[in-house]
Specification:
Distance between the termini: 45 Å
Order of helices and strands: EHEEHEHEHEEHEEEEHEEEEHEEEHH
Helix content: 25-40%
CATH topology of the largest domain: FAD/NAD(P)-binding domain
Number of helices: 9
Shape: globular
Radius of gyration: 20 Å
Largest sheet: 8 strands, mixed
Bound molecules: flavin-adenine dinucleotide
CATH class of the largest domain: Alpha Beta
Oligomer: single chain
Number of strands: 18
Length: 377
C-alpha cells in the first residue's frame, strides 16, 4: 500500500492551494484524490470574483492577505492565471445602505484595505454606461478583482506535479480505516492509501465524508446558477454588484454573472429558466447596453454555506484529520490564504493568523459565531 504524509481529498482551489503550501513547507509525500477532473466542483464553476469588501475583521484580514498571494501567484506560477485588479463596484440604493456601508468601509480601511464610498459622478467615471436611476452611491475598492479559475488550477497542478505530488483524478474516496482518534488509511474506488494526515477539502461532499468519520459539520449546499455571454470588445473592468446581481467581463471579453433565486438546500444542479429571466431583467435594468448580448453558456454549482457565512477551517475531533469548507460563496477568492493557513496548521499544529483561530469547527459548540453581512448571489 502506498503511504503519504498528507492525503488531500478534493481537487478544487482549497485542495490544490493547500498542497502548494505543503510543498513550500517541505512536506514530501503528498497525494490529492479527486473524484472527477481537477476543477469539476465549485471552483471550475465559479464567478471569478476576488474582493476584500467584507464586514468582519476575520474576512477582511484573510482577504487582504489572500490578495497579496494572488498578486504573487500572477508573477510566479508556471502559467498565467489572469489575476486582474479591476475593482469591485458595490452599488448602494439608499441613504441607509450608504450609512451602513460607510461603517464597513471604515473597518476595511482600519485593516489596510483601500475601499471608499464614492458618489454617482465617480461611478460614471468608472463604468460610464451604467444606469444610475435609483442609485445613491457605491462602495468601491480598486484593489479587488478577478482571476480565471481553470487557469489557476492548471497552473497549480503543473507546479504540484513538477514537485512530486501524486494527483489521482477520476478516483473517489469511499471509506476510511480508523482508530478511536485517528484515520490510518483511506479507501477509494480503486485503491487504498496509508496516511499520517488527512485534509478533507471535498466541497459539497465534505460534510458527508465527515459524517462517515463520526463527526458533523453544520454546512448546507445551495445551488447557484451562472452564465457567460459571447465575447465582446473589452469595456468593463470591475465586478459590479447590485443587490443580489453581480457581473464582470472576463479577460476574454465575455460577460460573466449571476443572481440569487432564493433556493432551498439541495443536491440538485438542474438549471432553471426562472434564473435566466431574473438575471437578464436585473442586468438590463442596470446596464441596458447589454440588452442584446447573447448568452452562450449557463451552468450551476454549489455554495457550501455555514451558519455564520464564514469558512470552517483546521482541526476536527480526530487528531490527524483537518477540514476546509463552508466558504458560503467566497471560497475561490479565499483559496490562496486558506491553503497557506491549512498547510501551516497541518505542518506546525497552529495557524499563523490570529483571525483564523476564530474559524475552527468548535466555534459552533462554543456559540462563538461571527456573522458576515456582505454576501452576494
Ligand atoms: C455559481 C457560483 C459562483 C461563485 N462565484 C464565486 C466568486 O466569484 N468568488 C469566490 O471566491 N467564490 C465563488 N464561488 C464559490 C467557490 O466556487 C467555492 O467556494 C470554492 O470553489 C470552493 O472550493 P473547494 O476547493 O472547497 O471545493 P470544490 O471546488 O467544490 O472542490 C472539491 C472537490 O472535491 C471533489 N470530491 C467530492 N467528493 C469526493 C470524494 N468522495 N472523493 C474525491 N474527491 C471528491 C469534487 O469533485 C470537487 O472537485 C462561486 C460558486 C458558485 C457555484
Amino acid at each position: 500500500m502506498k503511504s503519504y504524509d498528507v492525503v488531500v481529498v478534493g481537487g478544487g482551489i482549497i485542495g490544490l492551494a493547500t498542497a502548494y503550501y505543503l510543498v513550500k513547507n517541505g512536506v514530501r509525500k503528498i497525494a490529492i484524490i479527486e473524484k472527477e477532473y481537477i476543477g469539476s466542483g465549485s471552483t471550475g464553476r465559479c464567478g471569478t470574483g476576488i474582493r476584500q469588501q467584507f464586514t468582519t475583521k476575520e474576512h477582511i484580514v484573510l482577504m487582504r492577505e489572500s490578495v497579496k498571494i494572488w498578486r504573487l501567484w500572477e508573477e510566479i506560477l508556471p502559467k498565467p492565471i489572469h489575476f486582474r485588479q479591476g475593482g469591485y463596484l458595490w452599488l448602494l440604493r439608499s441613504e441607509e445602505e450608504d450609512n451602513e456601508y460607510r461603517k464597513y468601509v471604515a473597518l476595511q480601511n482600519l485593516f489596510g484595505v483601500d475601499s471608499r464610498i464614492i458618489s454617482k459622478d465617480e461611478i460614471k467615471e468608472i463604468v460610464p454606461d451604467i444606469n444610475l436611476e435609483g442609485i445613491f452611491g457605491a462602495s468601491w475598492c480598486p484593489s479587488d478583482g478577478s482571476a480565471y479559475p481553470q487557469d489557476v488550477l492548471d497552473s497549480l497542478e503543473m507546479f504540484l506535479k513538477s514537485h512530486g505530488v501524486d494527483i489521482f483524478d477520476y478516483e473517489s474516496v469511499v471509506d476510511f480505516k480508523k482508530t478511536s482518534d485517528r484515520v490510518i488509511s483511506i479507501k477509494t474506488d480503486k485503491d487504498e492509501y496509508a496516511l499520517d494526515n488527512l485534509l478533507i477539502a471535498a466541497g459539497y461532499a465534505t460534510k458527508s465524508l465527515a459524517n462517515k468519520l463520526g463527526f458533523d459539520i453544520p454546512v448546507k449546499n445551495y445551488r447557484h446558477q451562472i452564465v457567460v455571454s459571447e465575447p465582446l470588445k473589452i469595456f468593463l473592468s470591475p465586478m459590479v454588484v447590485d443587490r443580489s446581481l453581480y457581473f464582470t467581463q472576463t479577460y476574454r471579453g465575455r460577460i460573466i454573472g449571476g443572481t440569487d433565486t432564493n433556493e432551498e438546500e439541495t443536491d440538485d444542479l438542474t438549471l432553471t429558466y426562472n434564473f435566466l429571466q431574473k438575471f437578464s431583467s436585473e442586468l438590463v435594468s442596470v446596464f441596458s447596453k447589454l440588452s442584446s448580448v447573447r448568452l452562450m453558456r449557463h451552468w450551476s454549482g454549489f455554495y457550501v454555506v455555514s451558519p455564520d457565512k464564514h469558512p470552517i477551517l483546521g482541526p476536527t475531533p480526530l487528531k490527524n484529520v483537518f477540514i476546509g469548507t463552508g466558504y458560503s460563496g467566497h471560497g475561490f477568492m479565499l483559496g490562496p490564504i486558506v491553503g497557506k493557513l491549512l498547510a501551516h496548521y497541518i505542518t506546525y499544529g497552529m495557524f499563523f493568523l490570529e483571525e483564523a483561530n476564530h474559524l475552527t469547527l468548535d466555534r459552533f459548540e462554543k456559540g462563538m459565531l461571527i456573522q458576515e453581512k456582505a454576501v452576494i448571489g
